[in-house]
Amino acid sequence: MNILIADDESDIRNLIKISLEENGYTVFAAQNGKEALDILMAQDVHLAILDVMMPVLDGFNLLRKIREHSTIPVIFLTARADDMDKVLGLGLGADDYLVKPFSIAELMARVGAHLRRNNEYLSPKEKTSACIKYGNLSIDKEKCCTFRDGEPIELGAKEYKLLLYFMEHPEKVFTKRQLYHAVWDEEYYFDDNTVMVHISRIRSRIEDDPQQPKYLKTVRGIGYKLHYTGEKP
């Protein structure tokens, strides 16, 4: 099982990392929310332990982004002990809320309990949802691999995230700004040229003729959408 720790205090990160690894878990560590979000997009994470007060992106806003695409168990581990903070955290979709200072033994017990519960109650549909198919394309989200007609496609990290976003929302039209904010996670900055370059790279990998795309269509004056017009597989 893979677990993410996001905390700006290195001593706490290291303590939890060592304890989790001693219990047989694989651990990814981040020192801020943005770094944690990048790990979540790139790795198959089964549970996240988040601090609330982190630089760049705080724990509450990180949880909001996680819940846009994932139902993994999330445990808040924070010095914010106010009842309103607990209510907010749980209301945003956290599964547990542990206040510092904490017992490492209790944290390990809670981690194990949430992982068992999450595995037991996943529906068959959720257990197979790691693979997305559309037309002759498929993505294995657990391995971060993309295929066309069963053959692997080489994509860069942003290209993979962009194609995954389209495949999770087929037929939906997105503006360049929406795509940039979703994939590059820059709330106050936007570069339409960057989006266009990555769309072009994706087309060169998935289309027979990038000038007449069968998958990634340009919607003039608006943006792009994933709409397959080739032969059905």
Question: Keyphrases for this structure?
Answer:
five-stranded parallel β-sheet, four-stranded antiparallel β-sheet, Rossmann fold, 2 domains, Arc Repressor Mutant, subunit A, alpha/beta
What do these coordinates show?
α4 links the parallel β4 (74-78) and β5. With 233 residues, this protein is of the alpha/beta class. The strands form three sheets. A five-stranded parallel β-sheet has the order 2-1-3-4-5, sandwiched between helices. It has a four-stranded antiparallel β-sheet with strand order 6-7-8-9, covered by helices on one side. It folds into two domains: 2-125, Rossmann fold, CATH 3.40.50; 130-226, Winged helix-like DNA-binding domain superfamily/Winged helix DNA-binding domain (Arc Repressor Mutant, subunit A), CATH 1.10.10. The protein has helices spanning 10-22, 33-42, 59-66, 83-91, 104-121, 124-128, 157-168, 176-184, 192-206; strands spanning 2-6, 26-30, 47-50, 74-78, 96-99, 131-134, 137-140, 145-148, 151-153, 174-175, 216-219, 223-226. It starts with a strand and ends in a 7-residue tail after the last strand. The protein is 42% helix and 21% strand. It is elongated and about 60 Å long. It has nine helices and twelve strands.
Helix content: 40-55%
What share of the residues does DSSP label as strand, in percent? Answer: 15-25%
> For the CA atoms, what is the radius of gyration?
20 Å
User: Which structural class should the secondary elements be placed in?
Assistant: alpha/beta
Report the count of strand segments.
12
Number of domains: 2
- Figure out the total of helices: 9
Examine the coordinates and then state which fold CATH places here, giving the name of the CATH topology of the largest domain.
Rossmann fold
Q: How far apart are the termini?
A: 34 Å
Return residue spans where pLDDT drops below 50 for at least 5 consecutive residues: none
